[in-house]
Input
Amino acid sequence: MTTTSQTTASQTTASQTIGPFWHLLEDKSWADLTRFGAVGEVISVSGRVLDGGGAPMSDACVEIWQASPTRSDVFPGFGRSATDAQGRYAFKTIMPGAVPMVGAGNSWQAPHFAVTIFARGLLFHLMTRCYVAEGAALAEDPVLGMVAPERRATLVARCRAPGDWVLDFHMQGALETVFFEI
Output
């Protein structure tokens, strides 16, 4: 007899916050995209994940994806970091370059990371961006240009020191990060 609580590989299931793969967060090397010998301008990207009340989320997962430099045997282009007790995440990677905007003529996207956040209370992961650029590159980015000017800062990391970028993700509230529909 089969009950509704049983599932098989062929059944569709609801999205899970991070599903059966939470154990992969125990391997901290996933947050180092240079671990296979990637060369280029090495940078750190870090920050915190905060809930609607500004409290740190110690059980979140932040993933970054970057299109530049191109993924290779020495550069995975993907990283994953669990947050700590203070809600902090951190990555070591290669500085991304500008990438063309598909279907938008000659438009170029400013250097950025695509970011996915998994956390408690989310039925579906959240998608956002982390820009690591300044000035004209940001002003000309077609995606950032679609965001209300007063909200753009929620997507732009600040350069704390050369090669050290910081961006906090606010899940709700007055400082809520801009999240994109998928």
Remarks:
- The mean pLDDT is 87.
